[in-house]
Amino acid sequence: MKKLKRLLDLNVLLQDSVEHSERGSGLLVANSEMGKNVMKATVIQVGDDCKCVEVGDDVYYKVRTESPITIGDESYVITDERNIVCIL
Questions:
Q1: Mean pLDDT throughout 2-21?
Q2: pTM value?
């Protein structure tokens, strides 16, 4: 990853998880198909004012709050720390 100098405020840089999950029916679905409200991702970098999440944390975040960003040839999303639903 081409490094960012730093993120500001409560911004969090995330990389979407590509893992698959098993639903109750036994059907395997991609993470992006789990729901329209939240998605699992890994924290790549955190802003100066973030207090709850750390680099490397696996989290669920509100999808509607994401802003897609490309750094080098990698795709990421940025969201506000307040839109992180839980840390796994």
A1: 81
A2: 0.78
